[in-house]
Specification:
2 domains; 8-stranded mixed sheet; 4-stranded antiparallel sheet
Length: about 350
Amino acid sequence: MKMRKCFCSSMIAGLVMMAVVLTGCGEAVSQQSTAPKIALAIHGGAGTILRNSMTPETEAAYRAKLEEALRTGYAVLQDGGTSLDAVVATINVMEDSPLFNAGKGAVFTSEGTAELDASIMDGRTRNAGALAGVQHIRNPINLALRVMENSKHVMMVGAGAEAFAQEQGFEMVPNDYFYTDRRREQLIRAQQEEAGEMGAVLTPALSPGADKFGTVGAVALDRDGNLAAGTSTGGMTNKRFGRVGDAPIIGAGTYADNATCAISATGHGEYFIRGVVAHDIAAMMAYGNRTLKEAADTVIMKKLGELGGTGGVIALDREGNIAMPFNTEGMYRGSINTDGNLVVEIYK
């Protein structure tokens, strides 16, 4: 009896230990299956971007800069940074590059100046900040964030936005900081075409329309499950009368809501404004139970096209799904998905 009692006690102790081990294993599996997801997608403009119009050197430069932007933003997410931080860091890389129509590479207005627009939105709170028509802000997306975080307003324009920037300690740059020969050449061609004259001969990388409506943008999902979207642009070559496109307009060129998705758009802004494109995608998901891909494809490939608009979007949902539809010949774009896979693409 004494031996039986010891055996029973040992068996019970063993079962208890096994239960503890199994419980611990169950927690490990559970933690692994619910590991925080992070993802990032970017665009650098859509338009007539043809493989046979692009030199190998120019294509390589675009691909390298898109990859640099992706890796910069993704590193922020990996380090536990917020989706807003990642969006700003990503867009800064493209704003500082003369390759894109934003920041340093902004196109010229009809008067030969640069006028910059940008917006950002927080999917967690649906708070947003935007600015339009600024001429002395090196990184407009940074000021858009400051409008969102440090003011009672959503959008500021022109001189007022720059006065706010100075209050916030922003360094003001001369407008000629944004000058590039490439954009000057595009302006000359646009004005000659407008006047019915023969256009200037462009280099192969400057095929007609390649950057006419280009912007840069980013959408991100962070470890806390929060989405964010941002867009920055120089607008349209040869624009007049203080023209503003969709990039700084919440719901048109930028939108983010944790319940649905984050969107940044690029294309002919007038049509994106009329179609409220960014919000329309989110609304189709919220009220029509469409998937991210279904909603984005329907809005860009059908509804935008029916209006006569051209362009595309980058879209990211709370599960980390990515969609990047466009109805032009190309769109500079890239993404890093929840598995960490990096992709950079240009052509259709």
